Amino acid sequence: MNSSNLSMPVLFVGHGSPMYAIEDNEFSQSWRKLGETLPLPKAIICISAHWETRGTQITAMQQPPTIHDFGGFPRELYEVQYSAPGSPELASEIIDSFADAHIHSDQKWGLDHGAWSVIRRMYPQANIPVIQLSLDYHKSPKEHYEFARELTSLRDKGVLIIGSGNIVHNLSKVAWDKADDEEYGHDWAVEANDKIKKLIINNGHKELIDYNLLGKDVQLAVPTPEHFLPLLYTLAIKRESDKLSFFNDKTVMGSLSMTSLLIQ
After folding, report:
1. Buried b or exposed e, range 151-178, using 16+ CB within 10 angstroms
2. How many CA atoms lie within 13 A of 82 on its CB side?
3. In a domain, 2, yes or no
4. Residue 184's pLDDT is what?
5. DSSP letter, residue 74
6. Which structural domain, as residue segments, surrounds residue 154?
7. Most confident of 41-45, 172-176, 183-187
């Protein structure tokens, strides 16, 4: 990679329902606007909630397939293909540069919906290389955070790093009877989302790493770690001089938060 004089921003995106990949709504519109206003990246690395592995892996194929890792949705969604190229060269450079992190090359995964549902809205021409970095399910939140900090230098090489998950993600508590109310959130979900936002604003990274100690509302909001960990990646890469801004800041269907974060 050639170095760039511009340090790229970092994103945490609440990706929500796979249907947002094809629906024209306020969330997908904001993703499109990001693609139009952010500096054009040379490549994108996405840490998605939907790729958990033993050890850390990185996609290293020339043409990553579009993975439809969900069920029960309309045929139109399964027909979506996002044909962005991969970057074996970037994957190899990351593996070599962060040798102590023991990142392994992957030739099978591709792009799951945590990645392509958002990125296809940002860059519909599919002309920017995209690779995914997996979540090692053996790592603790603190280990994920410390590993992510090592990736910060990639920002100075024109790489846009995107964490894709949801701050509040509890599918067992979805309010299906409120599905048409796009702004409905259970009290505990709204309280947890607000609590986590305040910690983000105040750089309370240690408290966020130990999110299980933040009270019952956060325990309900984060019953499993995979949708929360991409937020820790984004925060770990933040520099002291960076500014924060939130977007898509809503809780939907009772127990899903779309709250997203731009660091630049």
Report:
1. beebbebbbbbbbbbbbbbbeebbbeee
2. 29
3. no
4. 80
5. -
6. 10-263
7. 41-45
CATH number at residue 87: 3.40.830.10
Structurally, the chain folds into a number of domains equal to 1
Is residue 5 in a domain?
no
Can you give the pLDDT at residue 57?
98
- The predicted model scores a pTM of 0.95
Whether 48 and 132 have beta carbons less than 8 Å apart is answered as yes
What is the band of 33 on the pLDDT scale with cuts at 50, 70, 90? very high
- Pick from 11-15, 71-75, 180-184: least confident: 180-184
Task: Enter the tokens of residue 64.
Answer: 């990553």
pLDDT digits (tens, 9 = 90+) for 191-220: 999 999 999 999 999 999 999 999 999 999
Q: How confident is the model at residue 5, as a pLDDT?
A: 57
Angstrom distance (rounded) from CA 102 to CA 119:
27
Between CA 183 and CA 185 the distance in angstroms is 6
Give CA separation, 86 vs 147, 186, 225, 230, in Å.
Answer: 22, 40, 27, 20
- Return the residue matching tokens 């604003």: 201
Question: Does 4 reside within a domain?
Answer: no
Pairing relation of β-strands 43-48 and 251-252?
unpaired
Contacts of 56 (CB under 8 A, 6+ apart): 101, 102, 103, 104, 133, 134, 136, 139, 147
Decide if 164 is inside a domain: yes
Task: Look at residues 106, 158, 156 and name the one whose alpha carbon lies nearest to residue 133.
Answer: 106
